[in-house]
Write a structure and sequence with these properties.
heterodimer; A: alpha/beta; Four Helix Bundle (Hemerythrin (Met), subunit A); Rossmann fold; 434 Repressor (Amino-terminal Domain); eight-stranded mixed beta sheet; 53% helix; 9% strand; flat; B: alpha/beta; 2 domains; 11 helices; 8 strands
Chain lengths: 451, 313
């Protein structure tokens, strides 16, 4: 997410960092790059203008020129302005105290409403009984799409009767259906429409009047360009939206739309879609996002994931063996499994600070296949071998390679990585085992270094 | 001429969204710093992209200097010409796809999720069946729920046969089957609708490469077109999409969809500029007739809001 913007800012700011002192012309040249970076990231032209001016006023001031590390100072200012622009607090979805809560999902065609609707419902189903309702009576097979997705995710579905053309009657039917079956959240998936289409916008307004909804969520494609602001403000003017969902953030879209939508409408981005699976929905955290833009890495996000994972109890086992200053291949296997549990590998790696700065470390190149192979190698070892890897010599290596469907080189690499990690772990154990730390050289052949 | 009228209506909005800015800009009478700044704003706000905008403005300044052009009106005409000629320098720009023997012509539609591939497939089929061509669909989007059903609805509308397998089956196999079916039944065109994929997803792009290879191998001497379906609200990421898809396939054209929106679609300037890929069609709505050949002069006029430039009041 936001990778390109982050890279650009990182580039500029590292140039600044390499100098002892910051002159006014340094600030100017840095801000030119900041401006370009933001514009390339599809941040609204006017918003960029305001932002750059604000940064300049603050950066050219005394505190920067007199500062010892001017680059950091500018970085801090850019970060502060960025996060101020995006709003600071994560905004949770509202649940009505008088059930059912009604969510009206709106947006342009192809923005990802149907997928997002199911993702939200799935997320809510942990504590609620959500019902998704197909209100898109225009696009061919849209109803079918929602029905299938709901079925796959085991979520309640309500669709129009065959030949139904009145959205409002579908809504009435859905509300009745929900109250009879005690669904407490109703998500209305509406047809995509142009914000300039008066007639269709009026249809949404009519739906709103009929209900009224607890949340009106605008789904915006993260790849949207300068039009995002106009789209958001048009929907906002007509409906008073309560939140934005940024979809398709798992691509390499720079996603600058998010910055501007908040600024222009004052409505928070609540959620972010980060993949095609129905689980790939995250709470949008603007602070975290600002950190990511600035190349600080998503340390918070990683910490959260690790905490979640630790609940499964695996962390204790590792901590246990750490205390005994022993790190075996079995621990490594356990760790591979936990990394897998953390979710798609590219997403985990994305959160690691500084990783984006490394050439050739694109998340795509680190496929989960490699992790699987590494696991297979260990799984092809005997218990003895796992506990005492030093006994693994030539013929054992060949057997393991054969058994895991990999190569002897792969086995060698894994053993080398293990050795590297064992040392690391030993050190780490001495530090007292406060938490987990990701090892070096886990995925690539030669291994890579985090910073 | 109801059809033509509708397109006109569709484009009217396109033109109006530009007219405000530029006619205002060019009616001031003086070329000063504010003038250039405004021009920059208009282009960037139109998703032309910051680098290309700066380079366009620089060339305009140079040209204006050379030709001693001083008035905003003349500058405007010069700028319009400049953008038109840049677009038209790309071979096949604005030309609809020819359907010529040997049959079947193969049209592979690719793009990110939600760009409008299936709808474009439906519109293309309707266009060609009305010309008396025999069209076959390949439902190679085997991933998205109900994608096959959606294409079947389009197939029913224009009487086009849909070759499909189960949801989740191998897309390349579907494409293969469909091509065999198209050959066997003497179809003129095979339209292959693929699953939307973000260009940054390596494995999905590989899958697309496989579909392409299969078609390439089996099509014989038939022509194959690979069209990138691009949403006109797309920002600068549109260029990255075009670049990545082009690297994998390569692309032979672009369809600019949802152009009835108020978005400007300026990213196609960058695509034409750096990749030399022609825009073949624009999509103007959800109906089967809402597709037309990309019209360069019209696009540029709309882009620059040429509604009687030079009007000083």
């Amino acid at each position: 997410m936001f990778d390109a913007l982050r890279e650009r800012l990182e580039g500029v700011l590292s140039k600044l960092k390499s100098r002892g002192r910051l002159t006014e012309s340094d600030v100017d040249s840095a801000l030119r790059e900041v401006r370009r970076g933001l514009l390339e990231a599809d941040v609204d032209y006017k918003v960029v203008k305001t932002l750059v001016e604000a940064i300049k006023i603050r950066a050219v001031g005394k505190d920067v020129l007199e500062s010892i590390t001017p680059g950091q100072q500018v970085a801090a200012i850019v970060y502060e302005e960025l996060s101020a622009l995006m709003g600071t607090e994560p905004a949770p979805l509202a649940i009505s105290s008088m059930p059912p809560s009604v969510y009206l999902m709106v947006g342009l065609q192809g923005g990802g409403k149907t997928t997002t609707t199911v993702k939200i419902a799935k997320k809510l189903s942990a504590g609620h009984k959500p019902l998704v309702v197909a209100c898109d009576l225009r696009r061919p097979a849209a109803v079918e799409q929602l029905r299938i997705l709901a079925e796959q995710s085991k979520i309640g579905f309500f669709g129009p009767a065959a030949g139904e053309s009145d959205v409002l009657s579908v809504v009435r039917g859905a509300v009745k259906f929900a109250s009879e079956r005690l669904y407490d959240v109703i998500l209305l998936d509406t047809a995509g429409r142009l914000h300039a289409d008066e007639e269709l916008m009026e249809e949404l307004a009519a739906m709103k009047r009929q209900l009224p909804p607890t949340e009106i969520l605008l789904v915006v494609d993260a790849m949207t360009g300068q039009e995002a602001v106009k789209v958001a403000s048009a929907f906002h003017e007509k409906l008073t939206i309560t939140g934005v969902v940024l979809s398709k953030l798992d691509g390499d879209a720079r996603g600058g739309a998010a910055l501007a939508i908040r600024q222009v409408t004052g409505v928070p981005v609540k959620l972010a879609g980060v993949g095609e699976g129905t689980d790939a929905l995250e709470v949008f955290d603007s602070r975290r996002m600002a950190q990511r833009i600035m190349g600080m890495g998503d340390v918070m996000g990683l910490a959260e994931k690790i905490r979640e994972m630790a609940d499964s109890g695996g962390a204790e086992k590792i901590a246990e063996s750490l205390k005994q200053k022993k790190f075996t291949l079995e621990d490594l296997l356990l760790q591979f499994e936990q990394i897998e549990k953390m979710g798609p590998l590219d997403k985990v790696l994305e959160m690691i600070p500084g990783l984006s700065r490394m050439k050739g470390m694109g998340a795509d190149e680190l496929d989960a296949k490699r992790l699987k192979q590494s696991k297979a190698v260990i799984q092809s070892m005997t218990r003895e071998e796992r506990r005492e890897p030093s006994i693994i010599k030539g013929s054992r290596r060949r057997r393991i390679a054969l058994g895991s469907g990999t190569s002897v080189q792969m086995v060698n690499q894994l053993l080398a990585q293990y050795e590297q990690m064992r040392k690391l772990w030993k050190q780490f154990g001495k530090q007292g085992g406060k938490g987990l730390r990701l090892p070096k050289g886990l995925f690539g052949g030669g291994g890579f270094r985090f910073r | 001429m109801a059809f033509f009228e509708r397109l006109k209506q569709g484009l009217k909005g396109v033109r109006e969204r530009w007219s405000g800015g530029l006619s205002l800009l060019f009616s001031g009478g003086v070329v000063d710093e504010a003038f250039w700044e405004n021009l920059e704003e208009i282009l960037i706000s139109g998703d032309v992209g910051v680098d290309l905008t700066i380079s366009l403005i620089d060339s305009l300044k140079r040209d204006a200097e050379e030709k001693r052009i001083r008035t905003p009106e003349e500058l405007f005409r010069l700028f319009e010409e400049m953008i038109s000629s840049r677009l038209l320098a790309v071979p096949f720009m604005g030309e609809p796809l020819p359907v010529t023997p040997p049959s079947p012509s193969v049209i592979l539609l690719v793009g990110v999720n939600g760009s409008g591939k299936t709808t474009t497939a439906g519109k293309l089929a309707s266009r060609w069946t009305k010309e008396g061509k025999k069209v076959i669909f390949a439902a190679a989007d085997t991933f998205r729920a109900a994608a096959i059903e959606q294409l079947k609805v389009w197939g029913d509308r224009s009487g086009v046969r849909v070759i499909a397998q189960q949801h989740g089956s191998d897309a390349a196999a579907v494409a293969f089957d469909a091509l065999q079916a198209a050959k066997a039944s003497g179809a003129d065109v095979l339209i292959v609708d693929t699953a939307g994929r973000l260009h940054s997803k390596h494995n999905l792009m590989e899958e697309l490469g496989k579909i392409h290879r299969v078609l390439e191998k089996e099509k014989g001497d038939s022509r194959m077109e690979v069209l990138l379906v691009l949403d006109s609200v797309m920002g600068q990421n549109g260029l990255a999409q075009a670049e990545t898809f082009n690297k994998m396939l390569p692309l032979t054209g672009v369809v600019l969809t949802k152009y009835d929106n108020t978005a400007k679609g300026g990213i196609i300037l960058a695509i034409a500029h750096s990749l030399k890929i022609p825009v073949r069609y624009v999509g103007l709505g959800e109906g089967e007739d809402d597709l037309r050949a990309f019209d360069v002069p019209e696009f540029v006029k709309a882009l620059l809001g040429d509604n009687g430039h030079g009007q000083g009041n």
